Amino acid sequence: MPSDKKPNIVFLFVDNLGFGELGCYGGGIVRGVPTPNIDRLAADGVRLTNMNMEAQCTPSRSAVMTGRIPIRSGTVRIPLPGQPSGLTRYEVTLAELLSQQGYATAHFGKWHLGDTAGRQPHERGFDEWWGLLETHDSSLWASAPGYDPQVAPPAQLFEGRR
Questions:
Q1: How many structural domains comprise the chain?
Q2: Is residue 127 assigned to a domain?
Q3: Which of 61, 49, 59 is nearest to 25 (CA)?
Q4: For residue 150, how far is the Cα from the chain centroid?
Q5: Residue 10 CA to chain centroid, in angstroms?
Q6: DSSP secondary structure letter of residue 113
Q7: Which candidate, 118, 132, 110, 127, places its Cα nearest to that of 87?
Q8: Which residues of 127-143 are buried (b: 16+ CB within 10 A; e: fewer)?
Q9: Do residues 93 and 129 both lie within one domain?
Q10: Mean pLDDT, range 41-48, rounded to an integer
Q11: pLDDT confidence bin for 154, thresholds 50/70/90
Q12: 42 and 56 share a domain?
């Protein structure tokens, strides 16, 4: 690749996916589901193999976005909907750094780093995004006896642009 051409970056961050689930890490068809497209991306790119994952997703997402230990960025637990919590506004995100280098940035899927003003993806360096701001497995609640959407409304899809 010419030194003046920037590489494309595709970063996959998936909840509840074990290390050995994907073919590129020894799983794939061995674990029941082939992952040829992801395996091809991994073969042609860089695989990250060392990260401490937390029990809840928000601290791990924060660590990836900032490169910092979650307790230093105020993300030791999942943010509750509508609360001024999640990734603190003073943290610099990977998306902001990439934007400064001329990259177009996008986020697709679950954010879960805060849903209040100043904490949404388009306010944290992403040019565009589409997905869920938060989820607490609320999609599972709708089929439960006695479910009341007034108490726990199902997650909604959002999109935004800078």
A1: 2
A2: yes
A3: 49
A4: 27
A5: 12
A6: S
A7: 118
A8: bebebbbbbeebeebee
A9: yes
A10: 92
A11: low
A12: no
Q: Name the residue among 117, 5, 22, 123 with its Cα closest to residue 65.
A: 123
Of the candidates 20, 129, 68, the one whose C-alpha atom is nearest the C-alpha of residue 76 is 68
pLDDT in tens, 86-106: 888 899 999 999 999 999 999
Measured at the CA of 56, the angle between CA 50 and CA 59, to 5 degrees, comes to: 60
Separation between Cα atoms, residue 154 and residue 149, nearest integer Å? 7
Q: Which domain holds residue 44?
A: 20-50
In this predicted structure, the answer to whether residue 59 has a pLDDT above a threshold of 70 is yes
Q: Which residues are the active-site residues?
A: 57, 112
Q: How far apart are CA 44 and CA 148, in angstroms?
A: 47
Query: Which alpha helices (H) appear in the chain, and where do they start and end?
Result: 36-44, 57-66, 94-100, 138-141
* CA distances in angstroms from 38 to 15, 21, 30, 55, 98, listed in the order given: 16, 11, 15, 24, 23
The answer as to whether 12 is a domain residue is no
**Residues constituting the chain:** 162
N-term to C-term CA, the chain: 30
